[in-house]
Write a structure and sequence with these properties.
By secondary structure, the protein is mainly alpha-helical. Helix content is 64%, strand content 6%. The protein has a two-stranded parallel sheet with strand order 1-2.
């Protein structure tokens, strides 16, 4: 059967755990070399972007929590811990503004 276009819903991205390279996009390789085009609606693109951003926020929060716990558990001085926390918080500020920070 010939397909002129393929489109995906946000739920497909979520089902694949938002793993674009190894999950969903890897599965689309079966259409490589065919005339089918991938059509992604603006709504789906924005939703996927929001889900990726939320996942990054969760990961950042867990990293900050882990850094604080390590600081307490291993009695790491503020001199050793504070720069890492500052970098994590810098990521947080830049993610709100949409900027791409250099660490």
């Amino acid at each position: 059967m010939a397909y002129g276009a393929i489109t995906l819903d946000t739920s497909v991205f979520d089902e694949k755990g938002l793993r674009l390279e190894s999950g969903l996009l890897k599965a689309l390789e079966q259409f490589k070399g065919r005339q089918a085009r991938l059509v992604l609606s603006e709504i789906v693109a924005k939703e996927v972007h929001a889900h990726l951003r939320d996942k990054a926020k969760e990961a950042r929060a867990l990293a900050i929590k882990a850094l604080r716990k390590c600081s307490e558990d291993f009695a790491i001085s503020n001199d050793g811990f504070y720069p890492l926390l500052q970098k994590a918080q810098k990521l947080r500020r830049h993610s709100r503004s949409g900027a791409n920070p250099q660490l």
